[in-house]
Amino acid sequence: MTDPELLADGPAEAAHTLVLAPGAGASMDSPFMGAVAREIAQGGVRVVRFEFPYMRARREGGRGGPPDPPPVLRQAWLDVIAQLGGGDRLVIGGKSLGGRIASLVADEAGVRGLVCLGYPFHPPGQPTRLRTAHLAGLRTPALVVQGTRDPFGTREDVAGYVLSPMIRLAWIDGGDHSLSRPARSGRTASQGLATVAELVLAFVRGLGGEP
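Given the sequence above, the corresponding structure tokens read:
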């Protein structure tokens, strides 16, 4: 099996490397993924992006298709972690599906940390179909950045979940599943993105003992 294609932003010699995978309907070079990667990289963290096999197949074949089965998604993460030198060198995560699958392999891979941007706690409109069982025992330090109006898990929803004490929740007031605020909030998209990047940078640097 060939190594997955990677996109990298930020200094190659950076003290920290954050690996991100996109959500279910997005590619690694989607506007959201590119903007997040560049904003975080400006803070001195190397950001590496990849996409799952089904998305690569869509890109090459030009046709849609459902996400790969969970074992394939998990193995894709493990392959990228190995390609980049092992979990103890990395913080992993991503948007929605990308972050969820990262959370499933984080302990196994022994990564330094986990970052989930808009975690899909449940499908929209189906609050009893939870994707949280493994999060109760998570041993990896984790940051979940979540919008308060995210249909995949609002602040009220998440307040009732049993989550590991290793998980830190950071709420974007008024944010949706893409962490965007409505126009009436007075916050521009770039300002919102900067807030997300600041949260991630503080978390990642803290894992390395930086102030």
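The longest strand covers residues 90-95. Try to locate this feature in the token string yourself.
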